[in-house]
Amino acid sequence: MAIELGKIGIWRGWHQLNADLAREADRLGFGAIWIGGSPDGQLTIVDELLDATENIKVATGIVNMWKDDAATVGASWHRIEAKHPGRFLLGVGIGHPEATQEYQKPYDKIVDYLDGLDEAGVPVAARALAALGPKVLKLSAERTAGAHPYLTTPEHTREARRVLGDGVLLAPEQKIVFETDPEKARAVARPTIENPYLHLVNYRSNLLRHGWTEADLDNGGSDALIDALALHGDIASIAAGITAHLDAGADHVCVQVLGDDPLPGYRAISEALLS
């Protein structure tokens, strides 16, 4: 892995990120900021976060292949790399079929897009691929630095590591709710998980592959499913849940703290796991 991300990063939608949050994440010792929500292919948000910080890396989680062509994104990578060498990991993916009328033959689209990044001169070691199922996980190992799975559990991480093999980046996302009351925690987590993810075929299929049932996925998600996809409890319980991904084979865990103000949660995680 050419870009060292550290063990734990933060995951936030691009519209939830700013220079102040980036500086605090850097100060707290997080290894990377993952930009979610399909940022624009010009990637000016990456410039903003890197300009504001000194050490932390920035990754996209993800640039949507259907929104921006590889040539545009490749040019953005070169601009960023020239200014901040070795601090940007370009995460790309195909999103989900419900989001675009053009969505068809997704595997072929991924291969074509990675070919385009090759042509644009984006190194394999500087890019990652959103991957859930074994076919795309294998492709991520062959054509990129590795995989960035979203909405998964340590059981998926363990299987993903088996598919990827050693020496390939595995950076799953994990949702967190800092709340010890299970009902209150689920009230925060369930809306984020149900809409849209439990209505999207790729996420449903992945969860079904890993032992969850249709009943778990329907009607807002079972309590057990919500608890697995969004850890809650005190900091000891949450730290143990993050560490479970690392023990299962993850190199790096992208932590998404849910709620109105994520900073107290990120500070608690830093104190527990990064001090």
TrEMBL record:
Pfam families (alphabetical): Bac_luciferase
Start and end residues of each Luciferase-like domain: 19-115
CC terms in the record's Gene Ontology section: cytosol
Annotated GO MF terms: oxidoreductase activity, acting on paired donors, with incorporation or reduction of molecular oxygen
Protein name (record): Flavin-dependent oxidoreductase, F420-dependent methylene-tetrahydromethanopterin reductase
UniProt source species: Amycolatopsis methanolica 239
